[in-house]
Amino acid sequence: MSSINYADKIPNNVNLSEDRTLQRALEHWQPNYLQWWRDMGPEGSHDYEVYLRTAVSVDPQGWAQFGYVRMPEYRWGIFLNPPEPGRKIHFGDHLGEDVWQEVPGEHRANLRRIIVTQGDTEPASVEQQRHLGLTCPSQYDLRNLFQVNVEEGRHLWAMVYLLHKYFGRDGREEAEALLERRSGDRDNPRILGAFNEKTPDWLSFYMFTYFTDRDGKFQLCALAESGFDPLARTTRFMLTEEAHHMFVGESGVARVIQRTCEVMNQLKTDEPDKVRAAGVIDLPTIQRYLNFHFSVTIDLFGADQSSNAATFYSSGLKGRFEEGKRNDDHRLQHDTYRILDVVDGRLVEKEVPMLNALNEVLRDDYIKDSIGGVERWNRIIEKAGIPFRLQVPHKAFNRRIGTLAGVKVSPDGRVVSDAEWNAHVGEWLPTEEDRAFVASLMGRVVEPGKFANWIAPPVMGINRQPVNFEYVRFN
Ligand SMILES: [Fe+2]
Ligand SMILES: [Fe+2]
C-alpha cells in the first residue's frame, strides 16, 4: 500500500503532490479507510462493477465522470471550490475581515469539533445502509444506493483532508477515530442520534435520503458561509453531490406512493389490510415512517437554545443558511427569535436572543425546505383521486433534544398525557408490526429493468441511460 502514487491515486485540486507531509499523513490513513470500507461498506458488493459517477473536477459544466467501477477502487478525490479572490468574512464579530486560510488559534477547538461532527455523519450513513443491497428493489436502485455510499465516503475524505492539513496531530487522531466509531455501537457510537438509528429497509432509506441528507444540505450550506475558507470551499463542493442524494429520497418515496395508489385504485380500496395483502405499502404506514424520520432528523439541528451556536456564529465559523442573501446586520446582537417553550403543559412561543436560537433558525429553514417534497408526494395521491394527504408532523412531535424533549406532543401539535401518547403512538410512529410488514416486502430484484412489486419504476434512468440499463455487473 505504501508505494501508491497518491498524486495519481487520489484525484484532487489541492496540489496534494506538493505537500509531502500531508501526502504521508493521508498515506497512513488511506489503507485504514479501505479496511473500514471492506468491513463496513455495502455488504457483499466488493466485486460488483457499478455504473457510478466520480467527481473529477469542480467545473460546474463537467465535474463528474460516469463509468463502471469496483467500489473498493472508487477514486475518492479531494476537491475544493476555487477560492474567491478577496473573500471577506461576512457575519459575526469578524465581519469585513479577510477570510482565514489557516485556523485561528482561538477558534481551533471549535472548528475541529464542527469538522469532526460533520465528518462523523458521512461514514455513519454508509454503516447504516450497508445491508440494503441485499434487498434492493431493482438494479437502478442498487446503483443509486451505492452512488450515495461512495459519495458519503468522499465526504469523509473531504473532512479528513481538513483535519490532516490544518489540525496537525490532533487532526490525525480525529481522522483515525472517524474510522473507529460505529453506527449504533453501544460502546463507541457515532456522535449524533439519528446516525445511530437503523436503516433496515428501503422505505427507511428513501426517507433517510430525503430528510436526513437534507439536514446534511443545511449543515453544509451553513458551513459553506464559514470564515475558515478551506471549510467553506470544500462544503460548497460537497453540496453538488448532495443534490442527487435528496433526489434518490424524493423520487424513491414518490415511486412507492405511486405504486400504492395504482394498487388502491385497481382494488378500489383504502383499507390498509387489503392494500398490504396486495404487497404494497399502505399510505398510513408511509405517514408513520415520515413522522419518524422527520422528527429524528430535526433533532440533528441541536438544542433550541445554544450558546455554542451563538459562539460558532459570532466567531465566524458557521453562518446561517444563505447568509449572504439576508438583509440584516449579520451580527444579530440585538435581534430576537421565537422558539417554542412549554408552560403549564402547553406549548407557547417565547422570544429569545437570536444568537442563542440559531439552531432553531436553521431548523425552521430546513422545515420549510422539506415541506416542498411532501407537497409533491401529495400531488401524486391527488392525481390518483385518493382523499389522503401526507403531512409533516408538528416540530414538537417526538423530540429528544432541547426544551421539547420533556413533553409528549401529538403530530398535530397538542401536548398530550403519557396515557394518550401510549394509546396513540402506534398510529403516529412505525410499530414493530409495520416494520416487519415492510421488511417482508424486501426481496432482491436484480434483473435489468425489473422492479419489486411495491415500487413503481423511475421515469428516467441515470445519466440518460435507459431504465433497463445494466447498472450493476455482478461478478
Ligand atoms: Fe455527505
Ligand atoms: Fe448525502
TrEMBL record:
One MF term in the entry's GO annotations: oxidoreductase activity
GO BP, sorted A to Z: phenylacetate catabolic process
InterPro entries: Aromatic_CoA_ox/epox (IPR052703), Benzoyl_CoA_Oase_BoxB (IPR017635), Ferritin-like_SF (IPR009078), RNR-like (IPR012348)
Any single Gene Ontology cellular-component annotation: cytosol
Keyword field: Oxidoreductase
Enzyme Commission number(s): 1.14.13.208
Top class in the EC scheme: oxidoreductase
Superkingdom of this protein's organism: Bacteria
Name recorded for this polypeptide: Benzoyl-CoA oxygenase component B
Native source organism of the sequence: Tepidimonas sediminis
